[in-house]
Amino acid sequence: MNFIKPGWIIILNGTPRSGKSSIAAVIQKTFEGVWMNIGVDRYMEMIPDRYQPGIGLRPGGEHPEIEPIIVNMYKAMYQSIAAHSRLGMNVVVDVGHHDGYSVPRGILPMCARILKGLPVLFVGVRCPIEIIMKRRIATWQTGYTNDGNIPKPVSLWQQLVHQPGIYDLEVDTSMNSAGECANIIRRRLEGPSPTAFHRIESM
């Protein structure tokens, strides 16, 4: 049986409107080889309406009744990511991992264990909340509360999405364009073997 070299898996983790999708698009267009995009937006397109937003559920424990299903959705998505890698295809994943559910779900360590033994680069996509708010207003025409405060779900995203903060690389989309972030990621792929997901496995 011929050996197939596993494809790279790049996981872009950050809040909504942090710029993950734009970076993923550049990676697909410019990186060498076949790059599949398997992430939160693609996966949510498959989720029935009654289980929305599925894996896009924001922190705050708003829908505890669907949280067990969300755990299985993440498990299925990451098993698909692993299958693509094992067949030699590269995968870019844009996602917002958090554990701000009604009870701790341990989804990130579970996903890390699913990808055990595969080449995974875990990238934190950061962006100051002031820029996030500007992008939310531009995209969805929703921004600050009536009294001028940041909505609680947006604040929770900013607090929880980068916990525990174990990454192989971090990029800031307020300082670098999507193309520049992709080039930073490209250079990191040429460096030492990434270890973040291996460290997260045992959490």
From TrEMBL:
ATP binds at residues 14-21. This is Chloramphenicol phosphotransferase. The lineage of its organism: Bacteria, Bacillati, Bacillota, Bacilli, Bacillales. It holds the Pfam family CPT. The keyword Transmembrane helix does not apply. The active site is at residue 41. Keywords: Transferase. GO terms for molecular function: ATP binding; transferase activity.
